[in-house]
Design brief:
Length: 570
């Protein structure tokens, strides 16, 4: 592959010689680039990726900023040559201009905790990582009356929650949080991650962005494009008081541009507004267990009308038995066999843990009288499934899964859900996440297909259905041993087959690991790839040198020969 230097961590190398150089860049050019980058952001904010330490950091709370901690290819495949951390918006603009001048690809990330999808690693080996979160990490504003926050890239869900707590604002507003609270609000939203309060669709709930474009210019989207008449024009643009409606109305005037900055390589987001949920004045999480595997169809048919009508106020999470089992213990605490768990074993786990083969988690928001009314409908509806059992959090004080969800569903972040990654030793994970309509038939068909293939490749099926409003994200967790090359190889082979089989049935993924972006992008090919052609046209117009995240989500700029770079070679 173009530009690959020795990726052998033991080879002697100079202090400023990375494992992998950027494409078409020799060491002398790389050094000149680094010197210039250092003059922009200062030495303490530039790090060459060249030591074992740089690639052995594998903890979620202290993530690697240089490579994918849950790698399925070699550890040093998706890796940066250096990481540069801008101190402010003008630094980001200067770094982009520098990258254009040197024609060196860059890859921005906010926290680097995008686990299961590639972490902080770039798609093109040797790109320069731009660590947006290290220095630009302020909650710029919380408006508890109009219920929004304005944040910088380094604000993670823990930070935003803590800010609300410290400023005694939780009794007024809640921030929605995803399963793992360490991700950044901006990174998670741009990647279209979800949480579980009624504000769980983060992209839907963002409002207004400030973006550095690939040429280094700066814009504000939506109402932010209209200057605030009271703003001090003597200040640099990024410091000028924004329009007072920037975080209140998403669309502004003319084409609505925000979408092109999501899962994209068209700009670096330096500020973003996110709506907060008003404290509902009362809250109750619940769990409903269903005893039989074949209950799935009926459960999903019951969920659809309730969710569309908002009787189910938040995203219901329907877990198969092993999601809870993995939260409670490692695989070897349940079975000695190295074969996928059998029906009797799964039934036994459910019985021992006092849970169902399927377990539905949800929450009700509002004063008691409202919750009582909702609960009477919810309980009556799910009671149609024989053997369904109903619990509130207080009924199961030792249930880790229920307790964790009860927190998450009210915007209290945690990292407890990370525990299930340790199902296998040296746990790594990949997510296969197809979208489908909310019908019993679709749920059953997806479950049958994904379970059959998971087991064929030697993995237990661990999965959940998350019902947005009119669709469901089916999240299949492929848990592998990342220190075992065979386990990694099987995981990678499995997900490739799943993507192809799903596309044959009209199911597409909503998000993907770096290694799979090309394959998935190719499945979205209606009318001779019309959408990809438009994305490429935009890419080449906005970023003619192709320096910002080449290859992200399968969009390759004209400066890269796609056939040489794609990882999908059918
Ligand atoms: P997390 O915030 O969950 O730790 P990352 O920081 O790893 O996630 O970001 C996930 C992905 O989102 C990155 O690989 C990048 O493609 C995109 N991204 C994150 N932050 C920004 C940003 N500020 N501007 C543009 N893209 C970003």
């Amino acid at each position: 592959m173009t530009g690959l230097n020795s990726a052998n961590g033991n080879a002697p190398r100079a202090k400023d010689e990375p494992f992998v150089l950027p494409p078409n860049t020799d060491l002398a050019k790389f050094r000149r680039f680094l010197a210039r980058a250092t003059s922009i952001v200062e030495e303490v904010n530039v790090k060459v990726v060249n030591s074992q330490d740089d690639i052995s950091q594998e903890e979620y709370m202290h993530p690697s900023k240089a490579h994918d901690m849950y790698h399925i290819l070699e550890k040093t495949h998706f890796i940066s040559s250096a990481v540069v951390a801008p101190r402010n918006v003008p630094d980001v603009q200067e770094v982009m201009k520098l990258a254009n001048e040197f024609e060196i690809p860059v890859w921005p990330f906010s926290m680097g905790r995008n686990v299961g999808y590639g972490g902080a690693a770039p798609r093109v080996p040797g790109s320069v990582g731009i660590d947006m979160g290290k220095n630009m990490n302020k909650v710029l504003e919380v408006n508890a009356e109009s219920c929004y926050a304005l944040v910088e890239p380094g604000v993670c869900f823990f930070d935003l929650h803590e800010y609300l707590e410290k400023n005694n604002l939780r009794d007024k507003v809640w921030a929605d949080v995803p399963d793992l609270g360490g991700g950044s609000v901006i990174g998670n939203t741009l990647e279209r991650g979800v949480g579980y309060t009624p504000y769980g669709d983060h992209w839907m709930m963002h409002c207004g962005m400030e973006v550095v474009m690939p040429d280094g210019s700066l814009l504000r989207t939506g109402m932010g494009a209209l200057p605030n008449p009271k703003a001090d024009k003597s200040k640099p643009p990024h410091e000028q008081e924004p329009n007072e409606s920037w975080q209140l109305f998403n669309y502004g005037f003319g084409p609505h541009n925000d979408g092109i900055f999501s899962q994209s390589s068209f700009g670096i987001v330096v500020k973003m507004g996110i709506w907060l949920m008003p404290n509902p004045g009362g809250y109750q999480a619940y769990m409903i267990t269903f005893p039989r595997d074949e209950d799935l169809e009926q459960i999903v048919e019951i969920i659809r009308p309730l969710r569309i009508a908002m009787v189910l106020q938040n995203v219901p999470k329907l877990d198969n038995v092993l999601v809870s089992a993995a939260l409670e213990g490692h695989r070897d605490s349940y079975s000695n066999s190295d074969k996928p768990l059998t029906e009797p074993e799964l039934d036994k786990i459910a019985k021992d843990l006092g849970i169902g083969r399927w377990n539905l988690y949800g929450a009700m928001y509002g004063p008691e009288v409202v919750r009582d009314a909702l609960w009477s409908v919810i309980k009556a509806s799910f009671s149609k499934v024989p053997g369904a059992k109903f619990y509130f959090t207080q009924d199961r004080p030792d249930d880790v899964a229920l307790k964790t969800r009860s927190n998450t569903f009210q915007g209290v972040p945690s990292i407890t859900e990370l525990q299930w990654v340790d199902w296998l030793p040296n746990g790594g994970h990949l997510f296969f996440a197809p979208i489908a309509k909310v019908t019993g038939d679709d749920a059953k068909a997806q479950y049958e297909l994904t379970r059959r293939l998971s087991e064929e490749y030697g993995f237990d099926f661990i999965g959940a259905f998350l019902v947005g409003v009119r669709e469901m994200h089916h999240i299949v967790c492929i848990l592998f041993d990342r220190k075992d090359p065979d386990s990694r190889r099987r995981a990678h082979a499995l997900i490739k087959v799943l993507i192809a089989e799903a596309a044959n049935r009209g199911w597409g993924e909503y998000r993907a690991h770096l290694a799979l972006m090309d394959q998935i992008a190719e499945t979205y090919n209606f009318n001779d790839n019309a959408q990809m052609k438009m994305n490429e046209t935009l890419k080449n117009a906005l970023d003619p040198k192709g320096i910002l995240c080449p290859g992200k989500n399968g969009v390759w700029p004209a400066t890269y020969k796609k056939e040489d770079w794609t990882l999908h070679k059918p």
